[in-house]
Amino acid sequence: MYNIVISWVYGGYIDGNILKGTAKLFPPEEDVENSILAQFADYLSPEVRAITVDDDGLLTGISADPEEDDTFFIGYLPLSLCQSLCPSLADFPTIYFSQLRELDRLGPGVDLMSYNDQKMVAFKFNPISVPRRLQMSWKEMNLLIKLPPHPNILPFYRIVLEDVESRIIGFTTKYIPGGTLADLKRPFRFEWLQQLTQVVDYLNLELGIIHQDIAPRNLLVDPETEKIILFDFDWAADGKGGLLKGRDDVSGVVFTLYEIITNDSHPTSIPHWERTIDMVQDIEWTCRRELDSDVSKFRKFLNEWVAKRTDRAAEQYNAPKLLTWPDLPTPPDYSVPFELGRTEKGETAWRTGERSRRVALEKGQYCFRWQRPPQSRLLKKAKDNSMEDCSVSSNLE
């Protein structure tokens, strides 16, 4: 019997669940766990800690036993600690999680929220205790706070705190309802390519920031300004550390334009360390999207820009306004010792560091809980509220 801990973050409750099954259901090199759990996410109680499925993926048992809660504890950082490490955080407004009202779920770790029942914002958060994800969340928040305002970059709004101990659990940004360039029905403009190369030059050559995830899905179109907006900086690097082979922004722009024009996403499915821009630059591009100019105009501009950037490749390492941020600190919670078995002499073995949520609760540590109703209930509630509003409006008339 295999036990797999999963954090389900989109359709249903955000929490850790142990999914139990045999090797037949969970082949070693295939990630099928989330798709199996997704079948039950809308129906599981927030108290469920483990579910068991048969070889066909059908539910055969559930457990609410706290001893089966192997969810890792996330030591969210206190605002005061973060401000001491990064004084610029003190200049930014905060908002408590209880002040936000959930409207929709835009994707894993991103919700559409409102506050004061008026302003809509995108709330980005990390409910997963994977070290890389924690690093990425810390980096993105600090980077967005330090980024100067730019017409083609999604602006940072507020730091989001949980209500009990004022720990940082995420942040909000402006919500732009225009959709992204991943929408194949949206005609693509030549000026948007110009805007994209300009904002990439600004980030790379002025600030030393490499986005590392330039893609149609990360480019919004602001319906008010008709400009493209770059967002999702959690893979960003500062030009000196964290750079990944094949994820430089020049390559990102080339592959993005190719995908937008041809609707061929295969090159982006190739591992980034194995692909080069020659794979698409040296072939014909079959246009499968409405453009406001001929494909040749786009390609000529792109090729000239790539040549210029190749000549200036070293400049991103010596950017005149290089942005930096402190390393992610170790959460104070991890310094609290806890028991972990026995020594050879039969004495209690103590350790510090990462721990399960169950252990943290036993030690009296505060654990922020992400459970919330499944998305299907959220949508039903929104529909019911809409019908009530229509009814009230009709009666008033």
Please name the defining characteristics of this protein.
397 residues, Phosphorylase Kinase, domain 1, Transferase(Phosphotransferase), domain 1, disordered N terminus, disordered C terminus
Folded structure, characterized:
With 397 residues, the chain is an alpha+beta fold. It folds into three domains: 69 residues, no CATH class; 98 residues, Phosphorylase Kinase, domain 1 (2-Layer Sandwich); 122 residues, Transferase(Phosphotransferase) domain 1 (Transferase(Phosphotransferase), domain 1), CATH 1.10.510. The chain is built from ten helices and 14 strands. The strands form four sheets. A six-stranded mixed beta sheet has the order 5-9-10-8-7-6. The chain has a four-stranded mixed beta sheet with strand order 1-2-3-4. Strand 1 and strand 2 form a beta hairpin. The protein is globular and about 70 Å long.
Task: Give the structure's gist in a few sentences.
The chain contains 10 helices and 14 strands. The protein has 397 residues and is α+β, with helices and mostly antiparallel strands.
Count of domains: 3
Report helical residue fraction: 25-40%
Total number of beta strands: 14
Please give the order of strands in the largest beta sheet.
5-9-10-8-7-6
Q: Which descriptor suits the 3D outline?
A: globular
Low-confidence stretches: 1-14, 387-397
CATH superfamily of the largest domain: Transferase(Phosphotransferase) domain 1
Radius of gyration: 24 Å
Give the SSE order as H and E letters.
Answer: EEHEEHEEEEHEEHEEHHHHEEHH
Average pLDDT over all residues: 86
Helical/strand content category: alpha+beta
Strand content: 15-25%
Q: CATH topology of the largest domain, anyone? A: Transferase(Phosphotransferase), domain 1
Number of helices: 10
Give me the CATH architecture of the largest domain, please.
Orthogonal Bundle
| Intertermini distance | 63 Å
Q: Strand count, sense and closure of the main sheet?
A: 6 strands, mixed
CATH top level of the largest domain is Mainly Alpha
